[in-house]
Amino acid sequence: MDGKPRAARRPRRRAGAGAPNPARPGLAALAGAAFAGAALAALVLAASAAGARAAGDTLRIGVITDMSGQYSEGNGEGSVAAARIALEDFGPTVLGRRIEIVSADHQNKPDVAAAIVREWLDQKGVDVIAEGVNSAVALAIQSVTRDRRKIFLISGAGSSDLTGKACSPTSVQWTYDTYASSNSTARAVVARGGATWFFLTADYAFGHALERDAARAVAAAGGRVAGQVRHPFGTPDFSSFLLQAEGSPANVVAFANAGSDFANAVKQAHEFGLPQSGRTMVALQVTLTDAAALGLDVLQGALFTDSFYWDNDEGTRAYARRFFARRGAMPTAYQAGVTSALTHYLRAVRSAGTTDSAAVMAAMREAPVEDFFAHGGRVRADGRMVHDMYLMRFKAPARSSGRWDLYERLATVPGEEAFRPLGEGGCPHVRD
């Protein structure tokens, strides 16, 4: 103690009175203290009851995403719309509780994201967190949700560390990861003669993981890495980095970035003449909205791997029509993943009969994922949702029927081949 409480308890000398006995406080003081204590207790009980009623009446889903930065087109408000489609499909209530969506912009800042999620979980009664595009942001959110034993459904963030060394027993990485995206593409490109690689890499968690996983796949397929350069997040000028790629002996230039970084880098590479020089351009992660903005004149022929395409089959086309009616754009894999993940979560809540995270996670692992996004998908112990991936190529402009007709599917890569084996990720809570 610092002595202040003792000073506060020292009785005052009343005017015209003798010194009171400090061991015998007056009746008025006792009555006042009792009244204050009762009032405080009543306030605490009322607040607790109100919180219990709020939590009991409403299941809150928090969608945290990039609303204003370079990932906002492929995620952003579209991810909130995707969450609302999940509610339309599932229904407005579960276990007698109304379902509500809240959303926020994390500004691509891990500290901002962590602060928002703490407030949601500690003060706003949010039950589950969804999306979390940007791997550095997702890693920060996952730390918060792990500590509070709350479920985090990751759609936009790709670092394979989220189900590896940084994994959480209450997180699921739904849509893709850097291992699956790079593994399938690298093997295909090396098999087609692209044996010498140069990486143009975003200098943060996502880019590092994408380059690491792709380099491993290149080596395993018999290729080699001739060089790499890392660029700042959000840089507008790639000229110095592209000059290094141009000066390398590599016959493959791999873009280990995303969003506007990818768009700017590919556009400037085209202006530099890298594709025209005979080098193969590889997109280790690309978003449909970025591809539509860039156009097939720039992208044609480039190979990449994705987890979802709106024109894959009738199920994806039906979902895409609903999404397009709301957003005026076709859904990205990240946005489709939000719908799929939340639908699976809500079904698990209904099946488990509770929102307790451990019980819901057990139900999510037990039930297969069977919907427009994935067929026969499953949630592993490390939090990886394993499903098929698709090796794609950008169409030639003459073969495209319109703005969103961009991809042609070359192969379906089974989930067990696409994603990292369970025992190789280093997830602390997984036992072989």
Fill in the keyword field for this structure.
single chain, 432 residues, alpha/beta, Rossmann fold, 2 domains, six-stranded mixed β-sheet, four-stranded parallel β-sheet, 16 strands
Brief description of this entry?
Residues 1-22 are annotated as: Disordered. This protein has 432 residues and is an alpha/beta fold. The chain has helices at residues 4-9, 27-57, 76-90, 110-123, 135-148, 178-191, 205-220, 239-247, 259-272, 288-294, 296-299, 314-327, 333-352, 357-366, 415-418; strands spanning 58-65, 93-94, 97-105, 126-131, 151-154, 171-173, 196-202, 224-231, 252-256, 280-283, 303-306, 369-370, 375-379, 385-386, 389-394, 407-413.
Explain this structure to me?
The protein is globular and about 65 Å long. Helix 3 packs across helix 12. The N terminus is likely disordered. It contains 15 helices and 16 strands. The strands form four sheets. The protein has a six-stranded mixed sheet, sandwiched between helices. A four-stranded parallel sheet has the order 8-7-9-10, with helices on both faces. A three-stranded antiparallel sheet has the order 11-15-16. Strand 4, helix 5 and strand 5 form a beta-alpha-beta unit. It is an alpha/beta fold. 44% of the residues lie in helices and 19% in strands. The protein has two domains: 197 residues, Rossmann fold; 106 residues, 3-Layer(aba) Sandwich (Rossmann fold). It comes from Methylobacterium crusticola. Pfam families: Peripla_BP_6. This is Leucine-binding protein domain-containing protein.
